[in-house]
Amino acid sequence: MKYLAIVGTNSDVSTNRMLLQFMQKHFSNEAEIELYEIKDLPAFNEPEDSDIPEKVAELSDKILKADGVIIATPEYDHAIPAVLKSALEWISYTSQALTDKPVLIVGASLGILGSSRAQAHLRQILDSPELAARIMPSSEFLLGKSQGAFDNAGNLIYSDKLSELDEVFREFLLFTDITSKLLAEKALNKKDKKYTWQE
After folding, report:
1. How many domains does the chain have?
2. pTM exceeds 0.85
3. What CATH number has the domain bearing residue 20?
4. For 33-58, what is each residue's pLDDT tens digit?
5. 173 lies in which domain range?
6. Nearest 5°: phi and psi at 138?
7. How many CA atoms lie within 13 A of 9 on its CB side?
């Protein structure tokens, strides 16, 4: 599997970035994970012409080519960061590249609860008609007290959270595979469908 892992913040120092970097290394034998920074994307503003900013087109292309997407979000005031919302608005307004794309949401926070409210907020956004992502159900990875979660080599040192992450990622691999087969079957049935006046 090839996954695009989106760092959902423009902060230069982020435990969400560290979490994705760890996942990239830890699951390297199971999947190819490419990290993507959204901090260089322009703030969303409905363009007067049809030109799509180069960085937005690049993100869309990477999403389209990936088997699935992993989004790591911090929590700011019970919601996702404005920079992540802006990136999703660009995708919604232009390519709609997340449509039917398998998505895993993870999040790290310095607090005890992780980014639970932000993850719920992100699920709601990804479920909107113009995004329509396939979000893995009944699963969330919340890394609380993230400031002390990694050692100097970037390894996740909370054993309970490591086990939880392993299980969540295995489920996401399966979810990606099942979703791709479901969509292939859906496309086949749609192609072969005959309307009453054709029979």
Report:
1. 1
2. yes
3. 3.40.50.360
4. 999 999 999 999 887 777 889 999 99
5. 2-198
6. 50, 35
7. 22
